[in-house]
User: What shape does this take?
Amino acid sequence: MTTATATSTRIFNFAPGPAVLPEQCLKQAQQDIWNIADSGIGVLEHSHRGSVIKKVFEEAEADCRKVANISDDYAVIFQQGGSTLQFAMCPMNFLTPDKTADYLHTGAWSKKAIREAKLFGNVHLAYDGTGDNFDHIPGPDEINYSANPEYVYYCDNNTIFGTEWSAPPQTDHLLVADMCSNMFSRPIDINRHAVLFASGQKNLGPSGGTLVIIRKDFLEKANADLPVMLDYQTQVDKGSMLNTPPVFAVYFMGLVFKWILANGGLKGMAKRNDEKAKLIYDAIDGSDFYQAVARPDSRSRMNVTFRTPNEDLDAKFVAEALENDLSGLKGHRSVGGLRASLYNALPMDGAKALAQFMADFAQKNG
Assistant: This one.
């Protein structure tokens, strides 16, 4: 069940973030922290103004574009502050007190985004899942858009409640997507969106870096006279290097982009992620012991949320799973229960090991 390396033994990591990373990338980083590109200096020590790091950033952007087939109609930048900063940065750039944005409220992260957006303009709740405890993604008949929103905002995957949009919301309005926890886990219709963003610590790399993809003609509508660090146009103009950027986070994202390209691209990621998720959902649905949190038509492939018959058994499940080299299965502190995060880098053997443990645990405790 464990994977041996020269210096340590690794177990299966189901944590929601910071999360599992591709072992191939970790091994390359071990080398490059010591000496990158035969420069005699490690990636953590190089100046971001030098040629080595300039190449790192250029390759990261180029490979990012290859991964998702991102055209020149879009700018690609690397930011700090995680998705939480984007919750404010996006409306700061595109809303004013006389403008409205539509928000689809599907969980804790959209709630935070809504709160930030209200600081800069009007927010219309085109959907509010509070009454259903965020157990599903809304259908078209549940969504009520305003007449002329500047954009429609949604969170593509909800890590806490375990729901995921199977496709972008049906609308002719410009979309802004928080893809923090499922970016590059499947093919993306980039051209449906004005802005897409994702922090690094799920599918893209370590914490500390955020990928932002912005349509250039939408960017032309951005507000002027903003603080430079919060101005998308300035960040684009400066090539993500207005100040000292999160070099290591961007470097590691670049490794992950290369890893995705070498492993079947987004179609390859989607196929493996679907197979991993099916293993765990089959273990839930095939047992009277476990109960899934999300409705079947809204289930996330990235974050499988479920429960045993009671909280004591939930705690026992987490403890015994760790004894069996299965880590990070405790549900979010706000909702409890259990959660298995199945990000791109989690190997198939990890999903198989968890499914087998679930079957054994249910048999012993049911």
